[in-house]
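note to self — DONT lose this again. spent like an hour looking for the file last time. sequence + predicted structure for the chain T wanted, 458 res
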Amino acid sequence: MSPRKPKPATDMFSQAGEARRDRDAPLAARMRPRKLDDFIGQEHLVGEGHILRRLMLTDSLPSIILWGPPGTGKTTLASIIAELTNSAFSLVSAVSAGVADLRRIIGEAQDRRGMDGRATILFIDELHRFNKSQQDAVLPFVEDGTITLIGATTENPSFEVIGPLLSRCRVFPLHSLEREQIAALLRRAIDDEERGLPAKDGTSNVAFDDDAIEALSESVGGDARIALNALEMAAASAPPAEKGPRRVTRDQIEEALQARTYLYDKSGDAHYDTISAFIKSVRGSDPDAALYWLARMIESGEDPLFIVRRMVLLAAEDVGLADPQALVVSTACQQAVHFIGLPEGFLPMAETAIYLATAPKSNSVMTSYGRALADVRESLGEPVPLHLRNASTGLMRDMDYGKGYKYAHDYDEHQVEQTHLPDRLEGHRYYEPGELGFEAKIKEWYEKLPRGRETGEP
């Protein structure tokens, strides 16, 4: 029986190349760079002398994961690698592919490797959408070199890629494009007669105002795909002119962008990064930044009660006893938002964000509890002192429960010297009052107490 002839790898990027040359393809597809020198952005990876560029040009790529926001060039880089490599190149989308597709490609890779020693690169788009069993199916063949994996993901690989697979890949982070880079892409699309806007009808009958390009470059969050799609829509909808080219203005660009979606995934990195920025802005007493991140979350469709829950926690953790009213304001905000909902709910949310940001700060509640918790975990078996035990029955009193307890209200200023901790922890001090806001008054009063003047190992 003659040896089985290996099938050629699925050359989906060649098909994509044909689509790019098709004048009916979307502008973003037509303008996809075909050569590394045409690629814009990610200089830290593909700039002259940088590591990913060297690996691509020498065709010595290990298994890698390209991690970055949408529209930053992950798929484009993979398509350039497909053109540069001597390896067979196969592509699957994690949205539609399953284990059977992976096994077929791996089988072809094994045949190819056994017959002529040719390597196979497998590009998995949206790798984060593969579940554990699908990632497990790839792992052994990445490990033994049957395939070189290129994964593209918008989500943090630390959370979305299984540890064994992640450890065998080099992660390359991609960044959102700068405004100047987006503007360069747009001008290239406007001028390129082969693939750009003129290629659609063979003419250059649309002119873009400079401030229209500027507005578009600033409004897409560094996403080249959104920028090119909006450019094409604005060009197609430009009103006719009596003479000369049709003009696209800033207003028309803004109209083309009205339906755009914000870079925000309620279960992804943008969700956690944005709430982190909000929390740190409030903690840093910056009401302007707090309002910006709050507005960004609300505009992106974040659950308002999620935001309010974070503000309640902020009130206790970061404002604390420096302003006890912060917790009252935050819980009132929760009631208000639950009661009226959005869109009007932004008002109590904004008020609370400003209140928390401008309030004096203290984290004494959190640090004090942490000290107490550390002792609790080391002394779970410590008995409750007899004088503090419940003495509600005769039997308990006969066992000296409550014996010697001093009722504070029977003493001057309702204060009494008495041990309230287990014997082994006597003198330990957990609460250290801050010196800002209301807590300064607490500190002044607290230090007058007998136990307030004690020092002990926290």
